[in-house]
Design brief:
300 residues, alpha/beta, Rossmann fold, three-stranded parallel beta sheet
Protein backbone atom coordinates (compact mmCIF):
# COMPACT_ATOMS: atom_id res chain seq x y z
CA UNK A 1 0.00 0.00 0.00
CA UNK A 2 1.26 3.49 -0.84
CA UNK A 3 2.17 5.87 1.98
CA UNK A 4 -0.63 7.94 3.47
CA UNK A 5 -1.36 11.34 1.96
CA UNK A 6 -0.09 14.06 4.27
CA UNK A 7 -2.76 16.49 5.48
CA UNK A 8 -0.82 19.75 5.37
CA UNK A 9 -2.28 21.82 8.19
CA UNK A 10 0.28 24.55 7.74
CA UNK A 11 -0.77 25.16 4.14
CA UNK A 12 -4.50 24.98 4.92
CA UNK A 13 -4.09 27.38 7.86
CA UNK A 14 -2.29 29.84 5.60
CA UNK A 15 -5.19 29.72 3.15
CA UNK A 16 -7.71 30.16 5.96
CA UNK A 17 -5.82 33.17 7.28
CA UNK A 18 -5.89 34.71 3.81
CA UNK A 19 -9.64 34.11 3.52
CA UNK A 20 -10.17 35.67 6.95
CA UNK A 21 -8.12 38.70 5.86
CA UNK A 22 -10.39 39.05 2.82
CA UNK A 23 -13.45 38.75 5.05
CA UNK A 24 -12.09 41.44 7.38
CA UNK A 25 -11.38 43.78 4.46
CA UNK A 26 -14.91 43.28 3.12
CA UNK A 27 -16.39 43.87 6.58
CA UNK A 28 -14.43 47.10 7.10
CA UNK A 29 -15.22 48.13 3.53
CA UNK A 30 -18.93 48.02 4.42
CA UNK A 31 -18.31 50.76 6.99
CA UNK A 32 -17.83 48.65 10.10
CA UNK A 33 -15.01 49.10 12.61
CA UNK A 34 -12.15 46.63 12.53
CA UNK A 35 -12.90 43.40 14.40
CA UNK A 36 -11.19 43.65 17.78
CA UNK A 37 -9.42 40.80 19.60
CA UNK A 38 -8.53 41.43 23.25
CA UNK A 39 -5.88 39.20 24.82
CA UNK A 40 -5.47 39.15 28.58
CA UNK A 41 -2.21 37.94 30.13
CA UNK A 42 -1.74 37.72 33.90
CA UNK A 43 1.86 37.27 34.99
CA UNK A 44 5.05 36.80 32.98
CA UNK A 45 5.10 33.13 31.95
CA UNK A 46 7.52 33.09 28.97
CA UNK A 47 5.52 30.60 26.87
CA UNK A 48 2.28 32.53 27.48
CA UNK A 49 3.99 35.77 26.48
CA UNK A 50 5.05 34.22 23.17
CA UNK A 51 1.55 32.86 22.49
CA UNK A 52 -0.16 36.17 23.25
CA UNK A 53 2.34 38.14 21.18
CA UNK A 54 1.87 35.84 18.18
CA UNK A 55 -1.93 36.06 18.37
CA UNK A 56 -1.87 39.84 18.57
CA UNK A 57 0.61 40.11 15.70
CA UNK A 58 -1.48 37.85 13.46
CA UNK A 59 -4.67 39.77 14.25
CA UNK A 60 -3.01 42.99 13.06
CA UNK A 61 -1.65 41.26 9.94
CA UNK A 62 -5.19 40.20 9.03
CA UNK A 63 -6.53 43.74 9.42
CA UNK A 64 -8.01 43.41 12.90
CA UNK A 65 -7.46 45.54 16.00
CA UNK A 66 -5.36 43.90 18.72
CA UNK A 67 -6.08 44.98 22.29
CA UNK A 68 -3.39 43.76 24.72
CA UNK A 69 -4.01 43.72 28.46
CA UNK A 70 -0.97 42.63 30.49
CA UNK A 71 -1.43 42.37 34.24
CA UNK A 72 1.05 41.56 37.03
CA UNK A 73 1.01 38.09 38.60
CA UNK A 74 -0.31 39.51 41.88
CA UNK A 75 -3.51 40.79 40.19
CA UNK A 76 -6.52 39.79 42.28
CA UNK A 77 -9.45 37.78 40.98
CA UNK A 78 -11.74 40.78 41.47
CA UNK A 79 -9.40 43.04 39.49
CA UNK A 80 -9.36 40.54 36.62
CA UNK A 81 -13.15 40.19 36.72
CA UNK A 82 -13.47 43.99 36.57
CA UNK A 83 -11.21 44.08 33.50
CA UNK A 84 -13.30 41.42 31.77
CA UNK A 85 -16.49 43.31 32.58
CA UNK A 86 -14.99 46.36 30.87
CA UNK A 87 -14.04 44.33 27.79
CA UNK A 88 -17.53 42.78 27.68
CA UNK A 89 -19.03 46.28 27.57
CA UNK A 90 -16.58 47.68 24.99
CA UNK A 91 -18.13 47.66 21.48
CA UNK A 92 -14.64 47.78 19.94
CA UNK A 93 -13.91 44.32 21.39
CA UNK A 94 -15.43 41.36 19.54
CA UNK A 95 -13.30 38.58 20.98
CA UNK A 96 -11.81 38.06 24.43
CA UNK A 97 -9.05 35.55 25.05
CA UNK A 98 -7.74 35.02 28.57
CA UNK A 99 -4.38 33.25 28.29
CA UNK A 100 -4.13 30.14 30.46
CA UNK A 101 -2.81 29.06 32.88
CA UNK A 102 -3.77 31.76 35.34
CA UNK A 103 -2.00 32.21 38.71
CA UNK A 104 -3.15 29.69 41.31
CA UNK A 105 -4.97 32.26 43.43
CA UNK A 106 -7.41 32.97 40.60
CA UNK A 107 -10.37 30.65 39.89
CA UNK A 108 -10.04 29.88 36.18
CA UNK A 109 -13.61 28.58 35.85
CA UNK A 110 -15.02 31.77 37.35
CA UNK A 111 -12.97 33.91 34.95
CA UNK A 112 -14.03 31.98 31.85
CA UNK A 113 -17.66 32.11 32.98
CA UNK A 114 -17.44 35.91 33.25
CA UNK A 115 -16.63 36.35 29.55
CA UNK A 116 -19.60 37.40 27.39
CA UNK A 117 -20.53 34.20 25.46
CA UNK A 118 -20.79 36.28 22.26
CA UNK A 119 -17.13 37.31 22.71
CA UNK A 120 -15.88 33.91 23.89
CA UNK A 121 -13.73 33.20 20.81
CA UNK A 122 -12.17 30.16 22.53
CA UNK A 123 -15.63 28.55 22.66
CA UNK A 124 -15.23 27.45 26.30
CA UNK A 125 -18.18 29.25 27.92
CA UNK A 126 -20.84 26.77 29.16
CA UNK A 127 -23.48 28.46 27.00
CA UNK A 128 -21.41 27.86 23.86
CA UNK A 129 -20.61 24.31 24.99
CA UNK A 130 -24.36 23.74 25.33
CA UNK A 131 -25.03 25.22 21.90
CA UNK A 132 -22.54 22.82 20.34
CA UNK A 133 -24.04 19.90 22.27
CA UNK A 134 -27.53 20.63 20.96
CA UNK A 135 -26.76 21.71 17.38
CA UNK A 136 -28.80 20.12 14.59
CA UNK A 137 -27.02 18.13 11.86
CA UNK A 138 -25.68 20.49 9.20
CA UNK A 139 -26.79 23.63 11.04
CA UNK A 140 -24.48 26.68 10.72
CA UNK A 141 -21.94 27.27 13.47
CA UNK A 142 -23.35 30.68 14.35
CA UNK A 143 -21.67 30.78 17.78
CA UNK A 144 -18.04 30.41 18.94
CA UNK A 145 -16.63 26.88 18.66
CA UNK A 146 -13.36 25.65 20.25
CA UNK A 147 -10.54 26.42 17.84
CA UNK A 148 -8.60 23.15 17.70
CA UNK A 149 -11.68 20.93 17.18
CA UNK A 150 -12.95 23.34 14.51
CA UNK A 151 -9.57 23.09 12.77
CA UNK A 152 -9.71 19.29 12.89
CA UNK A 153 -13.06 19.17 11.10
CA UNK A 154 -11.93 21.73 8.51
CA UNK A 155 -8.90 19.57 7.67
CA UNK A 156 -11.04 16.43 7.42
CA UNK A 157 -13.58 18.06 5.12
CA UNK A 158 -10.80 19.40 2.91
CA UNK A 159 -9.13 15.98 2.67
CA UNK A 160 -12.20 13.75 2.38
CA UNK A 161 -15.06 15.97 1.20
CA UNK A 162 -18.38 14.81 2.64
CA UNK A 163 -17.91 13.04 5.98
CA UNK A 164 -21.45 11.66 6.36
CA UNK A 165 -21.69 7.94 7.10
CA UNK A 166 -18.08 7.55 8.21
CA UNK A 167 -17.35 5.88 11.53
CA UNK A 168 -15.22 8.34 13.53
CA UNK A 169 -13.39 7.18 16.64
CA UNK A 170 -12.15 9.92 18.97
CA UNK A 171 -9.39 8.90 21.38
CA UNK A 172 -9.65 11.32 24.31
CA UNK A 173 -12.62 12.89 26.12
CA UNK A 174 -11.29 16.28 27.21
CA UNK A 175 -13.49 19.36 27.18
CA UNK A 176 -10.86 21.11 25.05
CA UNK A 177 -10.64 18.63 22.17
CA UNK A 178 -12.23 15.18 22.48
CA UNK A 179 -15.80 16.11 23.36
CA UNK A 180 -16.17 19.12 21.02
CA UNK A 181 -14.58 17.18 18.13
CA UNK A 182 -17.15 14.44 18.67
CA UNK A 183 -20.01 16.97 18.59
CA UNK A 184 -18.70 18.58 15.41
CA UNK A 185 -18.38 15.19 13.71
CA UNK A 186 -21.94 14.31 14.72
CA UNK A 187 -23.06 17.58 13.14
CA UNK A 188 -21.39 16.37 9.93
CA UNK A 189 -23.35 13.06 10.05
CA UNK A 190 -20.53 10.80 11.21
CA UNK A 191 -21.19 7.85 13.48
CA UNK A 192 -19.03 8.73 16.49
CA UNK A 193 -17.39 6.59 19.17
CA UNK A 194 -15.62 8.38 22.03
CA UNK A 195 -12.86 6.42 23.76
CA UNK A 196 -10.51 7.19 26.64
CA UNK A 197 -7.94 5.73 29.04
CA UNK A 198 -10.48 3.34 30.62
CA UNK A 199 -11.83 1.99 27.32
CA UNK A 200 -11.56 -1.79 26.98
CA UNK A 201 -9.68 -3.14 23.95
CA UNK A 202 -8.97 0.30 22.54
CA UNK A 203 -6.89 -1.01 19.60
CA UNK A 204 -9.86 -3.06 18.33
CA UNK A 205 -12.13 0.00 18.42
CA UNK A 206 -9.54 2.12 16.62
CA UNK A 207 -9.32 -0.49 13.86
CA UNK A 208 -13.02 0.12 13.10
CA UNK A 209 -12.48 3.82 12.41
CA UNK A 210 -12.77 5.39 8.99
CA UNK A 211 -11.70 8.59 10.77
CA UNK A 212 -9.43 8.39 13.82
CA UNK A 213 -8.87 11.55 15.90
CA UNK A 214 -6.25 11.12 18.62
CA UNK A 215 -5.97 13.62 21.47
CA UNK A 216 -4.86 11.67 24.51
CA UNK A 217 -1.55 13.37 25.38
CA UNK A 218 0.65 10.25 25.28
CA UNK A 219 3.71 10.05 23.05
CA UNK A 220 3.18 7.80 20.00
CA UNK A 221 0.40 5.98 21.87
CA UNK A 222 -1.54 4.80 18.82
CA UNK A 223 0.47 2.25 16.81
CA UNK A 224 0.29 1.43 13.13
CA UNK A 225 -1.50 -1.89 13.69
CA UNK A 226 -4.33 -0.04 15.47
CA UNK A 227 -5.29 1.72 12.23
CA UNK A 228 -7.77 0.52 9.62
CA UNK A 229 -6.13 0.48 6.17
CA UNK A 230 -7.01 3.69 4.32
CA UNK A 231 -8.35 5.52 7.39
CA UNK A 232 -7.92 9.27 7.87
CA UNK A 233 -5.85 9.86 11.02
CA UNK A 234 -5.78 13.24 12.77
CA UNK A 235 -3.06 13.52 15.43
CA UNK A 236 -3.81 16.37 17.85
CA UNK A 237 -1.01 15.47 20.27
CA UNK A 238 2.10 17.60 20.81
CA UNK A 239 4.82 15.90 22.87
CA UNK A 240 8.45 16.92 23.21
CA UNK A 241 10.99 14.08 23.41
CA UNK A 242 14.80 14.18 23.80
CA UNK A 243 17.08 13.39 20.87
CA UNK A 244 20.52 11.78 20.80
CA UNK A 245 22.25 15.15 20.35
CA UNK A 246 20.86 16.43 23.65
CA UNK A 247 18.16 18.54 22.02
CA UNK A 248 14.49 17.64 21.53
CA UNK A 249 11.86 17.21 18.86
CA UNK A 250 8.08 17.26 18.66
CA UNK A 251 6.05 14.10 18.08
CA UNK A 252 2.34 13.36 18.28
CA UNK A 253 0.11 10.82 19.97
CA UNK A 254 0.35 8.56 16.90
CA UNK A 255 3.44 6.58 15.83
CA UNK A 256 3.81 8.52 12.57
CA UNK A 257 6.16 6.22 10.64
CA UNK A 258 4.00 3.18 11.39
CA UNK A 259 0.73 4.97 10.64
CA UNK A 260 2.09 6.29 7.38
CA UNK A 261 2.28 2.73 6.05
CA UNK A 262 -1.40 2.02 6.78
CA UNK A 263 -3.50 5.19 6.80
CA UNK A 264 -5.00 6.87 3.75
CA UNK A 265 -4.56 10.40 5.13
CA UNK A 266 -2.44 11.52 8.08
CA UNK A 267 -1.53 14.77 9.83
CA UNK A 268 2.14 15.27 10.74
CA UNK A 269 3.42 16.71 14.02
CA UNK A 270 4.45 19.47 13.77
CA UNK A 271 2.66 21.03 10.79
CA UNK A 272 -0.71 19.31 11.09
CA UNK A 273 -3.37 20.44 13.53
CA UNK A 274 -1.19 22.95 15.41
CA UNK A 275 -1.25 25.80 12.85
CA UNK A 276 -5.04 25.51 12.59
CA UNK A 277 -5.69 26.58 16.17
CA UNK A 278 -4.63 30.22 15.88
CA UNK A 279 -6.08 30.48 12.35
CA UNK A 280 -9.47 29.34 13.71
CA UNK A 281 -9.15 31.88 16.55
CA UNK A 282 -8.98 34.62 13.90
CA UNK A 283 -11.90 33.01 12.05
CA UNK A 284 -13.95 33.03 15.28
CA UNK A 285 -13.11 36.69 15.88
CA UNK A 286 -14.30 37.70 12.40
CA UNK A 287 -17.53 35.72 12.90
CA UNK A 288 -18.10 37.39 16.29
CA UNK A 289 -17.71 40.84 14.70
CA UNK A 290 -20.18 39.92 11.95
CA UNK A 291 -22.73 38.67 14.49
CA UNK A 292 -22.35 41.87 16.54
CA UNK A 293 -23.07 43.86 13.37
CA UNK A 294 -26.18 41.78 12.61
CA UNK A 295 -24.58 40.05 9.61
CA UNK A 296 -25.01 36.34 8.83
CA UNK A 297 -22.50 33.55 9.35
CA UNK A 298 -19.74 33.71 6.72
CA UNK A 299 -18.45 30.44 5.32
CA UNK A 300 -14.76 30.75 4.50
Amino acid sequence: MADAKTIDGKAFALGLRQRVATGVADFVGQGHAKPGLATVLVGADPASQVYVRSKGKLAVELGMASIDRKLPAETTEQELLALIAGLNADPAVNGILVQLPLPKHIDTAKILLAIDPAKDVDGFHPINVGRLGSIAPGAPLDFPVPCTPLGVTMLLQDALGTLGGNHAVVVGRSNLVGRPVAQLLLRLDCTVTITHSRTRDLPALCRQADILVVAIGKTEFVRGDWIKPGAAVIDVGINRIPTADGKSRLVGDVAFAEAQQVAGHLTPVPGGVGPMTVACLMYNTLQAARRAAGLPYLAV
